[in-house]
């Protein structure tokens, strides 16, 4: 059976982008076809300004939402990154095979560090080394596939490079992983700025959160930025706002963006259908989330058992890497 690993950061409230780009596939496909691990990557949340109590709260919320989205602890392993020391143990070894130049070339680092410098803040060193820790997250488990959204592909490529380099220098230790992307909605865009992705640390009306009330979802989608055209057409480069709505609608209804463009004759009707489709997709997740919130001890138990399983899976690979590198 293939090994699958993926994660989500507790840096903000979980978005529709996280759900359509990653979480939904984890629940509907990956946990059924593979030996799958899903991780709340809380150490990664410390790479930017953070409030300790908020990170802890958002970690539990992400875990609860993953269960609400359909992850089944009988089928997969769900846990919190900081509960399993193997991630940081391995990360250090990988820092000794990665170069600072390749870290500085990472798009996400360039964007996030530029934003922080613009605001006059300093950039945490961990923001630069974040992709190495992510490589450790993946490689510690002998992962074959990493189901992610488009924004994480470059980081998975780095994990591949580091695995190959380590294996060449120190002997075969790591499985070389591959990223897998969803067919549609691999990059859900911000509704107010459809040239940038919908991210959970963005603020404002451009982001639909998984726990948004139906009316808030409708309002945000009805106000989405489109363009001055009249006819609905699918063209992600020239008409990113309309293309984004078509992708969201396609992901929610199982259609494809081009044919959905043909059946809508105005932006208004496209927005209305998209809003209703999103509301319907979120409804069962929100209902299950409410039930799970009433039983926090259950969620804690799942995370405790998950960490134990994850530790047992990671330790042999990480121990092998320590021996191989000369320790
Ligand atoms: P965020 O950028 O919201 O903090 P994470 O880094 O926690 O997201 O990513 C969790 C998963 O969600 C990853 O697989 C990532 O690729 C996916 N993802 C994040 N944002 C989007 C988006 N706008 N569209 C599609 N997938 C996304």
UniProtKB/TrEMBL annotation:
Q: Which reaction does it catalyse?
A: tRNA(Trp) + L-tryptophan + ATP = L-tryptophyl-tRNA(Trp) + AMP + diphosphate + H(+)
Q: Name one GO biological process term.
A: tryptophanyl-tRNA aminoacylation
Q: Which InterPro entries match?
A: aa-tRNA-synth_I_CS (IPR001412), aa-tRNA-synth_Ic (IPR002305), Rossmann-like_a/b/a_fold (IPR014729), Trp-tRNA-ligase (IPR002306), Trp-tRNA-ligase_bac-type (IPR024109), Trp-tRNA_synthetase (IPR050203)
**Keywords on record:** Aminoacyl-tRNA synthetase, ATP-binding, Cytoplasm, Ligase, Nucleotide-binding, Protein biosynthesis
Q: In Gene Ontology terms, what is one molecular function of this protein?
A: ATP binding
- Using the UniProt record, give the first listed, main subcellular location: cytoplasm
Q: Which CDD domains match?
A: TrpRS_core
For this protein, the record's SUPFAM superfamilies field holds: Nucleotidylyl transferase
- Segments carrying motif 'HIGH' region: 10-18
Gene Ontology cellular-component annotations: cytosol
The signal peptide stretch is none
The enzyme class is ligase
Report the subcellular localization. Cytoplasm
Binding-site list for ATP: 9-11, 17-18, 149-151, 188, 197-201
Return the EC number: 6.1.1.2
Give start-end ranges for motif 'KMSKS' region: 197-201
Give the top-rank taxon of the lineage listed in the UniProt record for this protein.
Answer: Bacteria
Q: Please tell me where L-tryptophan binds in this chain.
A: 137
What is this protein's function?
Answer: Catalyzes the attachment of tryptophan to tRNA(Trp).
The record's subunit annotation is: Homodimer.
Q: What family does the Swiss-Prot or TrEMBL record give for this protein? A: Belongs to the class-I aminoacyl-tRNA synthetase family.
The record's section on HAMAP family has:
Trp_tRNA_synth_B (MF_00140_B)
Task: Return the protein name.
Answer: Tryptophan--tRNA ligase
Task: Name its species.
Answer: Streptomyces dangxiongensis
This chain is encoded by the gene named trpS
């Amino acid at each position: 059976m293939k090994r699958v690993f993926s994660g989500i950061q507790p840096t903000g409230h979980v978005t529709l982008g996280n759900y359509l780009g990653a979480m939904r596939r984890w629940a509907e496909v990956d946990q059924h076809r593979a030996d799958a691990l899903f991780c709340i990557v809380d150490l990664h949340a410390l790479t930017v300004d953070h409030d300790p109590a908020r990170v802890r709260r958002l970690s539990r919320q992400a875990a609860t939402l993953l269960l609400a989205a359909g992850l089944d602890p009988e089928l997969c392993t769900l846990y919190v990154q900081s509960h399993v020391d193997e991630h940081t143990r391995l990360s250090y070894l990988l820092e000794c095979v990665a170069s600072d130049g390749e870290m500085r070339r990472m798009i996400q680092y360039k964007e996030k560090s530029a934003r922080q410098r613009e605001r006059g803040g300093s950039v945490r060193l961990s923001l630069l080394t974040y992709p190495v820790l992510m490589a450790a997250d993946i490689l510690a488990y002998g992962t074959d596939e990493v189901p992610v959204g488009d924004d994480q592909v470059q980081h998975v490529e780095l994990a591949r490079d580091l695995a190959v380099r380590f294996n060449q220098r120190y002997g075969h230790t790591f499985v070389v992983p591959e990223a897998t992307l969803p067919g549609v909605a691999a990059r859900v865009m911000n509704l107010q700025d459809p040239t940038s992705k919908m991210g959970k640390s963005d603020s404002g009306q451009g982001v639909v959160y998984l726990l948004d009330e139906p009316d808030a979802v409708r309002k945000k989608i009805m106000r989405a930025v489109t363009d001055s055209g009249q006819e609905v057409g699918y063209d992600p480069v020239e008409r990113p706002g309309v293309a984004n709505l078509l992708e969201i609608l396609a992901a929610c209804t199982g259609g494809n963006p081009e044919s959905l463009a043909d059946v809508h004759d105005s932006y208004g009707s496209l927005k209305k259908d998209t809003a209703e489709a999103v509301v319907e997709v979120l409804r069962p997740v929100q209902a299950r989330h409410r039930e799970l919130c009433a039983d926090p001890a259950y969620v804690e138990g799942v995370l405790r058992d998950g960490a134990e399983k994850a530790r047992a899976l990671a330790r042999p690979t990480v121990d092998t890497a320590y021996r191989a590198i000369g320790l």
